[in-house]
Amino acid sequence: MNKVIYTVLAGVLFISVACTEQKSETAAEAPATETAGQATADAFEVKLSPEQQQASNIELGSIEKRKISARVAANGQVELPPQNKASINPLMGGVVRSIRVKDGEHVQKGKVLATLENPDLIRLQEEYLTTKSQLGMAELDQERQQILNEEQIGARKRFEQAATDVKVQRARLNALRTHLLSLGLSPKQVEAGQITATMAVTAPISGYVQNIAVNLGSYAQPGQEMFAVVDNTHLHLQLLVFERDFDRIEVGQQVLFTLPNLASEPLKAVIFSLGKAFEGDSRMVSVHAELENIRRVNILPGMYVNAQILAGEHELAALPEEAVVQYRNKNYIFVQEEPTVFRMAEVETGVSEAGYTEIKPGADLKADARIVTRGAFYLLAEKMKSEVAE
Fold this sequence. Notes:
The protein is α+β, with helices and mostly antiparallel strands. It has seven helices and 22 strands.
Protein backbone atom coordinates (compact mmCIF):
# COMPACT_ATOMS: atom_id res chain seq x y z
CA MET A 1 0.00 0.00 0.00
CA ASN A 2 2.76 2.39 0.96
CA LYS A 3 4.56 1.51 -2.25
CA VAL A 4 1.56 2.59 -4.31
CA ILE A 5 1.33 5.89 -2.43
CA TYR A 6 5.05 6.62 -3.01
CA THR A 7 4.64 5.86 -6.70
CA VAL A 8 1.69 8.26 -7.05
CA LEU A 9 3.50 11.04 -5.18
CA ALA A 10 6.58 10.62 -7.35
CA GLY A 11 4.47 10.91 -10.50
CA VAL A 12 2.72 14.06 -9.28
CA LEU A 13 6.07 15.64 -8.36
CA PHE A 14 7.53 14.86 -11.83
CA ILE A 15 4.51 16.38 -13.59
CA SER A 16 4.72 19.49 -11.41
CA VAL A 17 8.43 20.00 -12.15
CA ALA A 18 7.91 19.48 -15.88
CA CYS A 19 5.12 22.05 -15.98
CA THR A 20 7.25 24.52 -14.03
CA GLU A 21 10.17 24.14 -16.46
CA GLN A 22 7.85 24.53 -19.47
CA LYS A 23 6.38 27.72 -18.00
CA SER A 24 9.90 29.05 -17.34
CA GLU A 25 10.98 28.38 -20.94
CA THR A 26 7.83 30.08 -22.27
CA ALA A 27 8.41 33.07 -20.02
CA ALA A 28 12.04 33.27 -21.16
CA GLU A 29 11.09 33.15 -24.84
CA ALA A 30 8.36 35.76 -24.54
CA PRO A 31 10.63 38.74 -23.71
CA ALA A 32 13.00 37.76 -26.52
CA THR A 33 10.17 37.70 -29.02
CA GLU A 34 8.80 40.99 -27.72
CA THR A 35 12.23 42.65 -27.91
CA ALA A 36 12.82 41.51 -31.49
CA GLY A 37 9.44 42.84 -32.58
CA GLN A 38 10.11 46.21 -30.94
CA ALA A 39 13.49 46.53 -32.71
CA THR A 40 11.87 45.90 -36.07
CA ALA A 41 9.06 48.35 -35.43
CA ASP A 42 11.40 51.06 -34.12
CA ALA A 43 14.19 50.65 -36.69
CA PHE A 44 13.74 54.26 -37.90
CA GLU A 45 12.91 55.81 -34.53
CA VAL A 46 15.24 57.68 -32.22
CA LYS A 47 14.27 58.25 -28.60
CA LEU A 48 16.08 60.85 -26.54
CA SER A 49 16.11 61.52 -22.87
CA PRO A 50 14.99 65.00 -21.79
CA GLU A 51 18.61 65.84 -21.01
CA GLN A 52 19.77 64.73 -24.48
CA GLN A 53 17.05 66.72 -26.19
CA GLN A 54 17.98 69.85 -24.27
CA ALA A 55 21.68 69.43 -25.07
CA SER A 56 21.02 68.84 -28.80
CA ASN A 57 19.40 72.27 -29.36
CA ILE A 58 16.84 70.70 -31.67
CA GLU A 59 14.59 73.11 -33.52
CA LEU A 60 11.30 72.15 -35.14
CA GLY A 61 9.50 73.54 -38.15
CA SER A 62 7.39 72.50 -41.08
CA ILE A 63 7.67 72.34 -44.86
CA GLU A 64 7.18 75.80 -46.33
CA LYS A 65 6.76 77.29 -49.78
CA ARG A 66 9.77 79.21 -51.07
CA LYS A 67 10.70 80.72 -54.40
CA ILE A 68 13.46 78.55 -55.82
CA SER A 69 14.88 78.62 -59.31
CA ALA A 70 13.95 75.57 -61.31
CA ARG A 71 17.13 74.08 -62.72
CA VAL A 72 17.75 72.19 -65.93
CA ALA A 73 20.76 69.89 -65.90
CA ALA A 74 23.06 70.03 -68.92
CA ASN A 75 26.49 68.81 -69.92
CA GLY A 76 28.89 70.23 -72.47
CA GLN A 77 32.31 71.72 -72.92
CA VAL A 78 34.17 74.99 -73.18
CA GLU A 79 34.30 76.21 -76.77
CA LEU A 80 36.31 78.84 -78.60
CA PRO A 81 34.59 80.91 -81.34
CA PRO A 82 36.10 80.31 -84.81
CA GLN A 83 37.13 83.94 -85.08
CA ASN A 84 39.25 83.56 -81.93
CA LYS A 85 41.42 80.77 -83.27
CA ALA A 86 43.86 81.11 -86.15
CA SER A 87 45.65 78.38 -88.09
CA ILE A 88 48.62 80.09 -89.73
CA ASN A 89 50.08 78.71 -92.97
CA PRO A 90 52.09 80.35 -95.75
CA LEU A 91 50.58 81.46 -99.05
CA MET A 92 53.89 80.57 -100.71
CA GLY A 93 56.14 77.71 -99.71
CA GLY A 94 59.62 78.29 -98.40
CA VAL A 95 62.44 77.11 -96.18
CA VAL A 96 62.08 78.15 -92.53
CA ARG A 97 64.99 80.46 -91.72
CA SER A 98 63.90 81.73 -88.29
CA ILE A 99 61.28 81.05 -85.60
CA ARG A 100 60.74 84.03 -83.33
CA VAL A 101 58.18 82.73 -80.81
CA LYS A 102 57.84 79.94 -78.26
CA ASP A 103 54.96 77.61 -77.56
CA GLY A 104 52.54 79.24 -75.10
CA GLU A 105 53.89 82.75 -75.69
CA HIS A 106 51.42 85.61 -75.95
CA VAL A 107 51.70 87.54 -79.22
CA GLN A 108 50.09 90.68 -80.57
CA LYS A 109 48.39 90.89 -83.94
CA GLY A 110 50.98 91.48 -86.67
CA LYS A 111 53.95 90.06 -84.75
CA VAL A 112 56.44 88.15 -86.91
CA LEU A 113 56.30 84.48 -85.98
CA ALA A 114 58.80 83.12 -88.52
CA THR A 115 60.59 83.97 -91.78
CA LEU A 116 60.64 81.86 -94.95
CA GLU A 117 63.07 81.95 -97.88
CA ASN A 118 62.03 81.26 -101.46
CA PRO A 119 63.87 82.32 -104.67
CA ASP A 120 60.52 82.71 -106.42
CA LEU A 121 60.03 85.86 -104.38
CA ILE A 122 62.85 87.50 -106.34
CA ARG A 123 61.19 86.67 -109.66
CA LEU A 124 57.87 88.02 -108.38
CA GLN A 125 59.48 91.32 -107.43
CA GLU A 126 61.28 91.50 -110.79
CA GLU A 127 57.98 90.92 -112.56
CA TYR A 128 56.43 93.72 -110.54
CA LEU A 129 59.18 96.17 -111.53
CA THR A 130 59.01 95.09 -115.18
CA THR A 131 55.25 95.53 -115.28
CA LYS A 132 55.51 98.95 -113.67
CA SER A 133 58.03 100.00 -116.34
CA GLN A 134 55.83 98.62 -119.12
CA LEU A 135 52.89 100.54 -117.72
CA GLY A 136 54.88 103.75 -117.91
CA MET A 137 55.80 103.06 -121.55
CA ALA A 138 52.19 102.23 -122.37
CA GLU A 139 50.96 105.48 -120.82
CA LEU A 140 53.50 107.50 -122.87
CA ASP A 141 52.45 105.72 -126.04
CA GLN A 142 48.80 106.45 -125.21
CA GLU A 143 49.54 110.14 -124.84
CA ARG A 144 51.31 110.25 -128.25
CA GLN A 145 48.52 108.38 -129.98
CA GLN A 146 45.96 110.70 -128.41
CA ILE A 147 47.77 113.77 -129.80
CA LEU A 148 48.07 112.21 -133.25
CA ASN A 149 44.40 111.21 -133.16
CA GLU A 150 43.33 114.71 -132.22
CA GLU A 151 45.40 116.13 -135.14
CA GLN A 152 44.00 113.36 -137.37
CA ILE A 153 47.49 112.18 -138.23
CA GLY A 154 47.42 108.71 -136.70
CA ALA A 155 44.88 105.99 -137.11
CA ARG A 156 42.03 105.69 -134.60
CA LYS A 157 42.77 102.00 -134.22
CA ARG A 158 46.30 102.59 -132.90
CA PHE A 159 44.97 105.04 -130.29
CA GLU A 160 42.44 102.48 -129.05
CA GLN A 161 45.13 99.80 -128.92
CA ALA A 162 47.38 102.06 -126.82
CA ALA A 163 44.53 102.72 -124.39
CA THR A 164 43.88 99.00 -124.09
CA ASP A 165 47.57 98.30 -123.38
CA VAL A 166 47.50 100.81 -120.53
CA LYS A 167 44.47 99.12 -118.96
CA VAL A 168 46.05 95.68 -119.23
CA GLN A 169 49.38 96.75 -117.72
CA ARG A 170 47.65 98.67 -114.92
CA ALA A 171 45.50 95.66 -114.01
CA ARG A 172 48.54 93.40 -114.05
CA LEU A 173 50.48 95.81 -111.83
CA ASN A 174 47.62 95.99 -109.33
CA ALA A 175 47.46 92.20 -109.19
CA LEU A 176 51.19 91.93 -108.56
CA ARG A 177 51.00 94.64 -105.89
CA THR A 178 48.23 92.74 -104.10
CA HIS A 179 50.28 89.54 -104.33
CA LEU A 180 53.29 91.23 -102.75
CA LEU A 181 51.17 92.69 -99.94
CA SER A 182 49.62 89.30 -99.19
CA LEU A 183 53.13 87.87 -98.80
CA GLY A 184 54.10 90.66 -96.42
CA LEU A 185 56.33 92.53 -98.92
CA SER A 186 56.14 96.28 -99.41
CA PRO A 187 55.72 97.42 -103.06
CA LYS A 188 57.34 100.76 -102.18
CA GLN A 189 60.46 99.01 -100.90
CA VAL A 190 60.56 96.93 -104.08
CA GLU A 191 60.28 100.09 -106.18
CA ALA A 192 63.18 101.52 -104.15
CA GLY A 193 65.29 98.51 -105.16
CA GLN A 194 65.10 96.57 -101.88
CA ILE A 195 64.73 93.07 -103.32
CA THR A 196 64.50 90.22 -100.80
CA ALA A 197 64.22 86.43 -100.95
CA THR A 198 62.57 86.12 -97.52
CA MET A 199 59.05 86.79 -96.31
CA ALA A 200 57.60 87.11 -92.82
CA VAL A 201 54.81 84.97 -91.37
CA THR A 202 52.79 87.13 -88.97
CA ALA A 203 50.04 86.59 -86.39
CA PRO A 204 46.57 87.53 -87.74
CA ILE A 205 45.12 87.86 -84.21
CA SER A 206 46.38 88.52 -80.69
CA GLY A 207 46.54 85.48 -78.46
CA TYR A 208 48.67 82.60 -77.29
CA VAL A 209 50.79 80.40 -79.53
CA GLN A 210 49.20 76.98 -79.16
CA ASN A 211 51.25 74.91 -81.56
CA ILE A 212 54.48 75.19 -83.54
CA ALA A 213 54.53 72.60 -86.32
CA VAL A 214 57.81 73.57 -88.06
CA ASN A 215 61.48 73.77 -87.23
CA LEU A 216 64.49 75.54 -88.67
CA GLY A 217 65.41 74.26 -92.13
CA SER A 218 62.10 72.53 -92.77
CA TYR A 219 60.06 73.37 -95.86
CA ALA A 220 56.70 74.94 -95.16
CA GLN A 221 54.14 73.99 -97.78
CA PRO A 222 51.24 76.27 -98.76
CA GLY A 223 48.17 75.19 -96.79
CA GLN A 224 50.30 73.40 -94.16
CA GLU A 225 49.73 74.72 -90.62
CA MET A 226 52.86 76.28 -89.15
CA PHE A 227 51.37 77.86 -86.02
CA ALA A 228 48.07 77.98 -84.14
CA VAL A 229 47.16 81.07 -82.13
CA VAL A 230 44.17 81.14 -79.77
CA ASP A 231 42.51 84.07 -78.03
CA ASN A 232 40.92 82.81 -74.80
CA THR A 233 39.26 86.09 -73.87
CA HIS A 234 35.92 85.13 -75.41
CA LEU A 235 35.39 81.53 -74.33
CA HIS A 236 31.83 80.26 -74.14
CA LEU A 237 29.96 77.10 -73.15
CA GLN A 238 28.32 74.75 -75.61
CA LEU A 239 25.74 72.78 -73.63
CA LEU A 240 23.37 70.02 -74.70
CA VAL A 241 19.81 70.10 -73.38
CA PHE A 242 17.22 67.33 -73.71
CA GLU A 243 14.22 67.93 -75.93
CA ARG A 244 11.81 67.78 -72.98
CA ASP A 245 13.59 70.69 -71.25
CA PHE A 246 14.28 72.89 -74.26
CA ASP A 247 11.01 74.86 -74.06
CA ARG A 248 12.07 76.12 -70.60
CA ILE A 249 15.32 77.64 -71.88
CA GLU A 250 15.55 81.29 -72.90
CA VAL A 251 18.25 83.74 -73.92
CA GLY A 252 19.50 85.69 -70.90
CA GLN A 253 19.08 82.91 -68.33
CA GLN A 254 21.95 82.31 -65.94
CA VAL A 255 24.03 79.13 -65.97
CA LEU A 256 25.95 77.70 -63.02
CA PHE A 257 28.66 75.27 -64.05
CA THR A 258 31.55 73.33 -62.56
CA LEU A 259 34.68 71.83 -64.05
CA PRO A 260 35.54 68.26 -62.99
CA ASN A 261 39.23 69.14 -62.62
CA LEU A 262 38.62 72.29 -60.54
CA ALA A 263 37.23 71.96 -57.02
CA SER A 264 35.76 75.42 -56.60
CA GLU A 265 32.49 77.29 -56.30
CA PRO A 266 30.21 77.09 -59.35
CA LEU A 267 31.13 79.54 -62.10
CA LYS A 268 28.60 81.66 -63.95
CA ALA A 269 27.60 82.13 -67.57
CA VAL A 270 24.68 83.71 -69.44
CA ILE A 271 22.85 82.13 -72.39
CA PHE A 272 23.22 84.17 -75.57
CA SER A 273 22.15 81.72 -78.28
CA LEU A 274 19.88 78.68 -78.69
CA GLY A 275 20.25 75.95 -81.27
CA LYS A 276 17.69 75.64 -84.05
CA ALA A 277 18.08 71.92 -84.77
CA PHE A 278 18.89 68.64 -83.01
CA GLU A 279 22.53 67.67 -82.65
CA GLY A 280 23.13 64.73 -84.99
CA ASP A 281 20.92 61.73 -84.28
CA SER A 282 20.31 62.68 -80.64
CA ARG A 283 17.20 64.34 -79.25
CA MET A 284 19.27 67.12 -77.74
CA VAL A 285 19.64 70.80 -78.66
CA SER A 286 22.75 72.94 -78.21
CA VAL A 287 22.72 76.02 -75.99
CA HIS A 288 25.52 78.60 -75.99
CA ALA A 289 26.43 80.67 -72.92
CA GLU A 290 28.98 83.47 -72.44
CA LEU A 291 31.32 83.08 -69.46
CA GLU A 292 31.40 85.70 -66.71
CA ASN A 293 34.28 86.78 -64.44
CA ILE A 294 36.70 83.92 -65.15
CA ARG A 295 39.94 85.90 -65.06
CA ARG A 296 41.18 84.08 -61.97
CA VAL A 297 40.29 80.60 -63.23
CA ASN A 298 42.47 78.69 -65.65
CA ILE A 299 39.89 77.55 -68.22
CA LEU A 300 40.95 76.10 -71.54
CA PRO A 301 39.00 75.23 -74.70
CA GLY A 302 37.76 71.65 -74.74
CA MET A 303 37.26 71.28 -70.97
CA TYR A 304 34.11 69.36 -70.04
CA VAL A 305 31.57 71.01 -67.73
CA ASN A 306 28.55 70.04 -65.67
CA ALA A 307 25.97 72.81 -65.71
CA GLN A 308 22.61 73.81 -64.31
CA ILE A 309 20.47 76.35 -66.15
CA LEU A 310 18.34 78.54 -63.88
CA ALA A 311 15.02 78.35 -65.71
CA GLY A 312 12.92 80.81 -63.70
CA GLU A 313 11.64 80.91 -60.10
CA HIS A 314 8.82 78.70 -58.84
CA GLU A 315 6.98 78.20 -55.54
CA LEU A 316 8.34 74.90 -54.24
CA ALA A 317 8.03 72.98 -50.98
CA ALA A 318 11.33 73.34 -49.16
CA LEU A 319 13.24 72.81 -45.91
CA PRO A 320 16.56 74.13 -44.67
CA GLU A 321 19.45 72.13 -46.12
CA GLU A 322 20.59 70.96 -42.66
CA ALA A 323 17.19 69.32 -42.11
CA VAL A 324 18.04 66.65 -44.71
CA VAL A 325 20.51 63.86 -43.89
CA GLN A 326 21.82 60.96 -45.92
CA TYR A 327 21.55 57.42 -44.63
CA ARG A 328 22.54 54.44 -46.75
CA ASN A 329 22.52 56.54 -49.96
CA LYS A 330 19.00 57.85 -49.34
CA ASN A 331 17.69 61.19 -48.10
CA TYR A 332 15.80 61.39 -44.80
CA ILE A 333 14.25 63.93 -42.48
CA PHE A 334 13.24 63.49 -38.81
CA VAL A 335 9.59 63.90 -37.84
CA GLN A 336 8.60 64.41 -34.20
CA GLU A 337 6.07 61.80 -33.06
CA GLU A 338 6.29 62.44 -29.29
CA PRO A 339 8.14 65.11 -27.31
CA THR A 340 11.29 62.94 -27.20
CA VAL A 341 10.62 60.47 -30.05
CA PHE A 342 11.59 61.17 -33.66
CA ARG A 343 10.99 59.05 -36.74
CA MET A 344 13.11 59.03 -39.90
CA ALA A 345 11.08 59.65 -43.07
CA GLU A 346 12.54 59.09 -46.51
CA VAL A 347 12.08 62.00 -48.92
CA GLU A 348 12.99 62.83 -52.47
CA THR A 349 14.91 66.08 -52.82
CA GLY A 350 15.09 68.53 -55.71
CA VAL A 351 17.11 71.67 -56.31
CA SER A 352 18.98 73.55 -53.57
CA GLU A 353 19.31 77.31 -53.41
CA ALA A 354 20.05 79.96 -50.77
CA GLY A 355 20.29 77.39 -47.96
CA TYR A 356 17.01 75.60 -48.78
CA THR A 357 16.33 72.30 -50.52
CA GLU A 358 13.24 71.32 -52.44
CA ILE A 359 11.37 68.50 -50.71
CA LYS A 360 9.13 66.01 -52.46
CA PRO A 361 7.60 64.20 -49.45
CA GLY A 362 6.24 60.69 -49.47
CA ALA A 363 2.58 59.84 -49.10
CA ASP A 364 2.98 58.98 -45.37
CA LEU A 365 4.16 62.48 -44.39
CA LYS A 366 1.35 64.63 -42.98
CA ALA A 367 0.97 68.25 -44.02
CA ASP A 368 1.15 69.46 -40.39
CA ALA A 369 4.11 67.25 -39.44
CA ARG A 370 6.64 68.78 -37.06
CA ILE A 371 10.03 68.35 -38.71
CA VAL A 372 13.49 68.76 -37.21
CA THR A 373 15.00 71.77 -38.99
CA ARG A 374 18.07 71.93 -36.79
CA GLY A 375 19.78 69.03 -35.06
CA ALA A 376 19.02 66.33 -37.65
CA PHE A 377 22.67 65.28 -37.78
CA TYR A 378 22.66 64.86 -33.99
CA LEU A 379 19.69 62.50 -34.23
CA LEU A 380 21.36 60.56 -37.03
CA ALA A 381 24.48 60.18 -34.88
CA GLU A 382 22.38 58.82 -32.00
CA LYS A 383 20.77 56.31 -34.36
CA MET A 384 24.18 55.18 -35.56
CA LYS A 385 25.34 54.76 -31.94
CA SER A 386 22.36 52.51 -31.18
CA GLU A 387 23.13 50.37 -34.24
CA VAL A 388 26.74 49.92 -33.13
CA ALA A 389 25.60 49.04 -29.59
CA GLU A 390 23.24 46.38 -30.92
